[in-house]
Amino acid sequence: MQNDIEKRVAFLEKEVHNLRLELHQLKSATKDVEQPFPIVMKETSEKGHKEIQRVNNHTNDSVENIRPKNQTIQKPKERPQKVQQPMKQPLPPKKQKSFEEIIVWSLPKIFMVILVLGVLWGLKLISDFGLLSTVVKLVLAYGLSIGLFIIAFTMDKKKKDTTQVLTVVLYGGTFIIGILTTAAGAIIYEVLGLYFALFITFIYIAYGVSICYVKKNEVLSIFVIFTSLLLPYLLEYMNFNGPSILLYVLIIFIAMQLVFIKHIQKIALYISYSFSLLAIMIIWILNQEQPWFYLASAIILNVFLLYVWWHQNKLRGKTIALHEGLLFSLSGLTIAMINLISNEPELALLSLTIVYMVFAYYAYQSKMKQLVDVMGTLSLLSLFNLLLALELSSSLDIVLFPLCAFISVMLAIRIGAKMMKITYSILFTISVFSHLLLSDVKPFWTIEHANYLFILLYLIVIFLFEQKHQNVQVEGKAKVNLSFSGDILPIVITGFFFYYVNIFNYSYISQEYPYATYILLAFMMFVSFFMPKHLTGRLLKYVFIFAFAISMINLLPSHYVFGMDIWLNIIARLVYVCSIIAFMVDILMKGYFYQTWIRKSKIDLDGLHTVCILAVMMLLYGLLNQLQFDQLISPIFVIASKTILLFIVSSISLWISTIQPFRKIKVMGYVVIVFAIFKLVFFDLSSLNLFIRAILFISIGGLGLFLSNKLLSKKGKGEE
């Protein structure tokens, strides 16, 4: 009896050890995921528990040895007991092809092209030497085509991954060799009858579409649709009428849609649609008759494009914005082509508007908001083109062209399509430049003049809309690159605004100089410092400062003006003087400009104040010259005023140097006062009468004494 108990205990210990090993393996496999015990382990543990309880009735010593081991394998009460559904294993990540694998898989395509070229050149060489007759050459070419198909079909039965690419290439080689052979036999050698060649071509095209349907190779589909759409030009050569050729284009395009729907070949869809539209346009150019057939064909193609695109993009991926942009661009190209085909496209454009509205409704029902935006924008564009076609106004196109480009840019921002945004931004820029070159602001109440304001509004809305959709945050002192929407676009908007102000100034205010523009520029420069940074960007205020400096240089010399320009000239000079003085006072008082801009930058305040003082002195000097040039004051008063101006500038410079440690300003003050005294003694005495001379000397003397007292007081405090 004792031996049986010992054997059973040894058996249970072995089972417990195995269970521990299994538990450890499960934990290492699932890591952080907690899984229930397998059924086998549960049954084994329960069986062991019963055996131990049965042994416990016979001997207490064995129970004491067994109980701790049994407790280590018992499952907690809170552990779930349902284990019927095994845990789903995660799918292994898709292995990406290496560069070597890409090269290896591309070699069959390259070699097939080489083979086709070799066959063509070989046939040409045989023809030149007269070795074989034309019929024999065509038979050999068709034999090669059929042979490639047999080889591909035989290899396809092996169902090996390594032969799939080669079989697709061989199927494609069968198609192209057959098409080229048929075209050569009918057009070049004139051995095959045109209708018989057409029949053979249709057989090969049906074969190509069938292979594309069976094989899910997008490159093969693109190749087949491209080659098939060369046949319309053969039909044109055979003097088929336009509607028959259009019917062929529609049949080929619709047949390929079955392939695109089955295998989700998006790029092939876009390429086939583009070449189909191109075929319709070329056939129209060659025939120039019955435009309704061509308009209806374009609409039918566009409807199939929308339907197949809808089917392919039900599941929205990461590149959905790119595909939405391509859908918009191809549909917009269709609208443009309809306008080119017919001079009366009203009904066709109305049909497209209805089609886009219907698709927008279905997109809304499917809760595809971005597609609703695309279809709604296309509806607006087709409606605008309908209004243009109705010729309600001769100047309506001036407004609608920039408006269409503006709406397209807004849609690109809305759906986040970068390529679409770049493309339509270029179109918008072209439309704006066309308006700037061809339209004027005179007379005042015209559509051309109003469109300047419309374009300015478009630019502002684009900027604000882009800022709303741009969620770029800078943390800490991270370096941020300049962005077009945040930093360059405010400069573009400001440049367009001042261009409009400038031409408005020359048209209605000033005749020679843009004084109104100068005044507004100074005002806008100060406003830009108070505006939020996300509205002005990081470059606009520096552009304003540069433009302000250039305008100030233009105001330094005397201008030959008359009429209202005389007073605008004076006002502009005074505005610039007051602007610089206000800027200097704010910095000296450590006001808004100093706290928000100067304090954070590494600008030499000594040199900055020196430049500002010289600029004010030169502007006032130029103002006095302008007053004398316009004969508003006498020359004697101008001479005295210039001397007083020099002494005032030197006094202010030296006074500033007493309250701030500005060495450059102090040196400039001494230089200016020496120059003022030299001018007073050697030039002014001989030019002024006694009364003016007395007033001048009294003023300068009093000013000099006041300044000397300030300087001496400052020096005395420094010595103490």
TrEMBL record:
The chain crosses the membrane at residues 102-123, 129-153, 165-188, 194-214, 219-235, 241-260, 267-286, 292-310, 322-341, 347-364, 371-390, 396-415, 422-438, 450-467, 488-509, 515-532, 539-560, 566-585, 605-624, 636-655, 667-684, 690-707. Pfam families: DUF2339. Residues 56-74 have a biased composition (Polar residues). Residues 2-29 form a coiled coil. It comes from Ureibacillus galli. Residues 56-94 are annotated as: Disordered. This is DUF2339 domain-containing protein. Keywords: Coiled coil, Membrane, Transmembrane, Transmembrane helix. InterPro entries: DUF2339_TM.
